[in-house]
Amino acid sequence: MELEKKLNILADSAKYDASCSSSGSTRKNKPGGVGNGSLGGICHSFSDDGRCISLFKILLTNHCIFDCKYCVNRASNDIPRTFFTPDEITALTLGFYRRNYIEGLFLSSAIYKNPDYTMELLLTTVRKLRKDNRFNGYIHLKAIPGADPRLIREAGYYADRMSVNIELPTQNSLKLLAPQKSKDAIIKPMSVISSKILENRDERKHYSSSPAYVPAGQSTQMVIGATPDTDLTIMTLSENLYKRFRLKRVYYSAYVPVSSHPALPGNIVPPLLREHRLYQADWLLRFYGFKAEELLNADNPNLDMELDPKSDWAVRNLHLFPVEVNSADYSMLLRVPGIGVHSAHRIVAARRHHSLDYGSLKKIGVVLKRACLFITCRGKYYGNISMNEALIKDSLASAGEKSKDKNPQWQQLSLFPSPDRPVPAQVLLPSITGEL
Amino acid sequence: MDFLYDGSFEGLLTAVFEAYYRHEVPERILSRKYYQESLLDQVLYIRTDPSKAYRVYRSIKEKISPLCYKNVYYTFLSEHEDAATWIYNYLRLGWSMGKEVDSCLADEQVLKVHSIVRKVVGERHRMLGFIRFKLLADNIYYAGFEPDYNIVGLLAPHFSARLPDQNWILHDVKRSLAVLYNKKRWTLTPFSHTGFISASDCAPDFQELWKQYFKRIAIPNRRNPKLQKRNMPVRYWKYLTEKQLPG
């Protein structure tokens, strides 16, 4: 099969992986080599679905022995199958990289023959890139669940980031949709990688020359909306993953229907808003000091679709508000809806010079649409409604809607309503020329 | 009184120097490149003097901060009509406050400089991704682009660290400027040849493969052209391989 056809088939199969970040690596180029890492990551393009293309995301093969119901590459699915050789992947990656199309490679694979065999193929490919071609760009490599830990350990020395996909948040869901995968098989490579990262970090403290192991950390992905799991289950799991395995990212991927199995929901529209809310909640866990139990509990096991998770939390905890921007500490500023990490930093820096009033908040770039309901500046409250749960909730929800609403039911009345029928020109003319 | 400088960065710094030592506060500092003379303006022509410029440069770095110097330079690169005036006002504040000037976020003058710097930095970062090289016949990788700001020089260190074993050209078509790199070092130079550049890569497969890949990697159920355009403004598409029509 020619290269172009293979690329089409395997890119098609790879696109449901959400991760595309290329950040976290400071790998330097070595003499005679090509490429380097960029700490903040670089997006090289944006595909038609608006998501960034940073890495060349591709499968080694889509021949799969597994039959996971939610997956496009499941064994029972009737799609064209093919595989790349390690040399083909290497040539494509370098060709793209030298033209600055990509930041590196994201290599994954369906499970061909058995997990060990697949992992070995992946390992061969990245070794070829790093050693034979002296490629120092970013490499994100999938660890295959069930593969020999020795293979996974070795692969980590070539990759910048590794990931094992959790796919579904509970053992039950896995049993239902991916009977050949088990929780243990997924967790094991994760813990192998995370303990090796810790060990490596310690090693590098003493011997700075020892090679870095998965310097950009590991990540994982969950499919959202294919099973009836609640957001509470998902967020608690994410929280544990961040704590226990020090994951860099958990990706959430709205389930896109790729099959019509009776165990799967029949809905056609991917739950994109839910995915968005989960990402918002995820950010609150990682950068805003929230805990999963603060955002969700047994009574509210799912995130509010109307309000973002932070506003929702604030409305439920109105007794903590309003906060005074000139005296509140950083961690409390972060909890104000509408104030993000960036704004909070700016507020803290700016108030060292002079106290802030409403106008100067605006000037330093704080978005006050939501924040104004939860703060005071020099003791004065600028929200136009009182601190009442229902009122604030209403106001927040309508603020969100206003921008979306394309056909408003309401309109501003004009003082001089335009006449229903156009005024004939003869009548209009004298009033323009003044010749009455 | 308006000061007019020759449009170079050294000229701008000289103008700042003169503003201090002549004890004459200029109303505006303008580049001769964009200046439209009017009847009522009183104008002082500044002659660029590298040694005066160097003194200002040293003074900014030592008495204010290296960050401030970066802000000044990036503001200059924005090529905004009022850039020099903003820089002058920002520096005056800087010399009175020292390095603290950059945390006066609510100050009008600081704000103007910071917001234009943010735009220049943003475009530079975007371009690190949106530059597209073509392999020409003589084993030269060529990339043309038309940035809003004069950032071609800011891109050079990134690409010389990343692709040191290639000959490459970064060509700002709008300003007829280019960075040339010969596997050893890069130089910024006026550049307007385009005749030798054919539209296609001499290894066209990669362009074609990339276009195919670009099409395939999008999830059809999630199509979102609005988001795509927000992240990748249409004005940059002219030079993006994946946005060229096939053939």
Describe it for me?
By secondary structure, chain A is of the alpha/beta class. Chain A folds into two domains: 3-295, TIM Barrel; 309-402, no CATH class. Helices cover 39% and strands 10% of the residues of chain A. In chain A, the strands form three sheets. A six-stranded parallel β-sheet of chain A has the order 3-4-5-6-7-8. In chain A, strand 1 (45-46) and strand 2 form a beta hairpin. Chain B has 247 residues and is α/β, with parallel strands linked by helices. Chain B contains eight helices and eight strands, in the order E-H-E-E-H-H-H-H-E-E-H-E-E-E-H-H. In chain B, strand 7 (177-182) and strand 8 (186-190) form a beta hairpin. In chain B, helix 3 packs antiparallel against helix 4 (83-97). The chains are: A alpha/beta (436), B alpha/beta (247). The interface between A and B is large, with 58 and 55 residues.
Secondary structure layout plus pairing:
The complex is a heterodimer of chains A (436) and B (247).
Chain A: H1 3-14, E1 45-46, E2 52-53, E3 55-59, H2 86-98, E4 104-108, H3 115-132, E5 138-142, H4 149-155, E6 161-163, H5 171-177, H6 183-206, E7 218-224, H7 231-244, E8 249-254, H8 272-287, H9 292-295, H10 309-316, E9 323-324, H11 330-333, H12 341-350, H13 358-363, H14 368-371, E10 375-377, E11 380-381, H15 389-404, H16 425-433
Chain B: E1 2-5, H1 9-21, E2 28-31, E3 43-45, H2 50-64, H3 66-77, H4 83-97, H5 108-130, E4 134-135, E5 140-145, H6 152-162, E6 167-172, E7 177-182, E8 186-190, H7 204-217, H8 225-231
